[in-house]
Amino acid sequence: MFLDCPAYLDEVGAVRCGLPAEVTSRYTLRSTDGQLESAMINCPSGHWFNGPIESLTLSTGKQTQPGQYRHGIPVDRCDQNQATVSSGGSR
User: Which one-letter DSSP state was computed for residue 31?
Assistant: First the structure.
């Protein structure tokens, strides 16, 4: 079973990782409202989470685009930085 990785990739919390996160373990938590289906998940980027499945799933209707960020930096900024470094200029 896979879920979309809910990790935030920017400082303002607007962009999520969204890569497929594998469910490595499933268990049930007791609460005052009854039992909660819970899981441990991890994604290929190294993000991992542990908690109720309801809190691990993305509830927005907007699809995230995995790969828009590389190492937490927007891809378009990465490309600009590489061009600046290769041309020897500074920003």
Answer: E
